[in-house]
Amino acid sequence: QVQLVESGGGLVQSGGSLRLSCAASGFSLSPNAMAWYRQAPGKEREWVATIFSDYSTYYLDSLEGRFTISRDNAKNMVYLQMNSLKPEDTAVYYCNVDLSGSKHWGKGTLVTVSS
């Protein structure tokens, strides 16, 4: 049973920081690319960041270097460090893995950034 459980969301002021965590189970983390997506109210889900098995990372350009995705395969964890948060970062953040061509999602964790 593939399971992704996000945590770490909350209410933060503009300019603040949060670290989101994704606890993965039911599959081997190490060979898989992991990603974070987010969905703001009234908007479609958008890709935020990906970390591949070789630890290479890619980000949504508009993040302007404010976010960092990381992974700890030994702990089956993926993280998203979010700094200099802006109100437009407000969204439900989802952890994601693509297994056998099918994406798996957590239930999400809400990040609210106040102005």
Q: What is this structure, in a nutshell?
A:
This protein is mainly beta and 115 residues long. It has no helices and eleven strands.
Q: What does it look like?
A:
The mean pLDDT is 97. The protein has strands spanning 3-7, 10-13, 18-25, 34-39, 46-51, 57-59, 67-72, 77-82, 91-99, 102-105, 109-114. A hairpin with a 2-residue loop joins strand 9 and strand 10 (102-105). Helices cover 0% and strands 55% of the residues. It has 115 residues and is an all-beta fold. The protein has no helices and eleven strands. The strands form two sheets. Strands 2, 4, 5, 6, 9, 10 and 11 form a seven-stranded mixed sheet that branches.
Note the main attributes of this structure.
11 strands, seven-stranded mixed beta sheet, mainly beta, globular, four-stranded antiparallel beta sheet, 115 residues
